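Quick entry, no commentary yet.
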Amino acid sequence: MDKFVIRGGNKLEGEVTISGAKNATLALMPATLLAPGNYSLYNTPELNDVYTMMKLLTHLGVAAEFRDNLLKLNTDNIISQDAPYEHVKKMRASVYVLGPLLARFGLAKVSLPGGCSWGPRPINLHLEGLKKMGADIELSGGYIIAKSPRLHGSKISFDISSVGATGNILMAAVLAKGESSIINAAIEPEIINLVCFLEKMGARIEGIGTPNLHIEGVDELKSADIDTIPDRIEAGTILIAAAITRGKVKLNNIKAELLLSILNKLENSGCNLIYNNEYIEIDGVNNNINPIDVTTSAFPGFPTDMQAQWTAYMALASGVSTVTDTIYLDRFKHVPELQRLGASITINENSAIIKGVKKLMGAKVMSTDLRASASLVLAGLAAQGTTEVLRVYHLDRGYQRIEEKLKFLGADIERVEGKEF
């Protein structure tokens, strides 16, 4: 398992280009199962999760070629509707193949998903929605077995807004007979990217960007190409890296509209920002780091995927702040590791109360999940001395060579390869 060795204290300066969005890509790839043909997915990030999804699609019969952030897929010869545990266990997003396989072939056998070390993330919304569309669903031997000669349109109302369920039901509905409505649909940019892709394939969808989607099912779709949107979480992480090191950085290939909630909080914390829908500039050189509370919520609110990074940032604030996660109530495994670096944080139910300290000190810390890993890297960049972040394979799931981007901006960070540390 690789680790990062970070010698903290360097201010980040310069320009960096943001990669394509992981969460968008992991929805776009399964969508290609809906129709035979050749697909080109541009701006696809080179991530472990993308390669995991490629392996799953290849098992199903998809031909894949991936080079220079261009992913080419051919779905003419699907030979299986069985997504086995050996592939699905690595990544929860693998469940995205359920809707497309069922809609196109009338059958899907998908292992119950894995891929995260924290918190229950049930898929009942996916299954209940498919049942309303006429699917016969059985849970047997750790698998979801779904059957339907052809799904039919239905009105599906989610009690809570779910990105995963919205994507899965949407991909199923575009080939269903009749009309479907998704009420309280997720409006995250990654869902909008998926809707645009489906429309290019010939789907008929109204209400893009709103919580109420109306889908008129069609008999068949065609292949298409799509540009993956920039990764707002990678952008937010690098912005905080600049802020926590009192640096000055310009991010290219990023739309400010994707992360306005984060930009607003950074400005309130004391950073100066200039942004539009092509780039974001952050200047934290004279930043005193004001303590700013955040509460996560569905888009356009503050994303849960930035909660851990913000917690690391507030560890050096000039006062007390609170970070509350309303999406995943137990997503705080990064806190004990930040405490090893000298952070003063206590947990009260689904909130972290952070008393800012004047300095963090380098130490050896352990990654537990993707975003927790990012928070440890951010803290290490600002800490005095050397920080070792172990098990950075978590980071490789969601950030395209982030250590190279940080090094390019002036960070003293290196990847050390090894089996165990």
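second:
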Amino acid sequence: MKIELINTKRLTDFPSGSSMEFYNNILYLVGDDAEKLLMLDKNYNAINAVTLFDNKEYRIPKKKKADLEASAIIEYKHKKYLLLLGSASKEKREKVLLMALDENDHHDFEIIKTDVFVKKLEAAGVEEVNIEGATGIGDNLILSNRGNKNHPDNLLIKTSACFFEHQDKAALHTSLLDINKSCETTAGISGLCYSPFNDTLFFTASTELTNNAVDDGEIGDSFLGMVYHISEKLMNKIIDPDIIINLSKANPAFSGEKIESICIERHDNQGIIFHLVSDNDDGKTGLYKIAVTGSMHS
């Protein structure tokens, strides 16, 4: 398997890139303490922006931020929406933001509290809620709960794509995504995306020396992982990755970069074009376009 770096760009005027989605040739980028959502073309040129929160400072203070860490494209009431999820690691972060993607009502969004769903996660055994990744698989939404030194388990949470509508009744199943026997140290999942082309779940993970879901820590390596035939495995108690690639070793451009998210531009018989986002806690955002070619089938 070969990884080729096609393009990279450092955004010095957009803080803390945390999640990105690709839809109709537009990249939708959010930051965990950014007041705006940024829209970019495939070459990372800004097209538009939507103000999500009123904030006078460049970065929303840690105590106030919604900590939008995950995103997914979902179908809701027969329309396409961008779903942005707060990490739910604190009360202020227990929310989702739902933004219409159809041209007629583009940029319209609503914010929905997820406190009922978070309580349901805790009751299901999620010891420290910290949602960092999301992706749609059919009518399901798959969330990833990031592990840390004190709670090293990385969980995949299967629920309904519209879980926010009836949170107390939303379907829920948790699986351990066992990535740490393949990584050299404790790594936490940071992003998810899914390809129906060969039913593969892709994820990013990174090592960070922190004991909890709130504090930042020293940045280590970042990883790209794959799970084949994911639809058959979503009800398993333990899911083993089929491939984990240390990005820092695959290309020096990723050395010291904390990869936060991944999305797919294209996936066909020639390979995959991914977009990756990094946030090194310095108020900037790194963007990487990579091509992955070679054997990706089990």
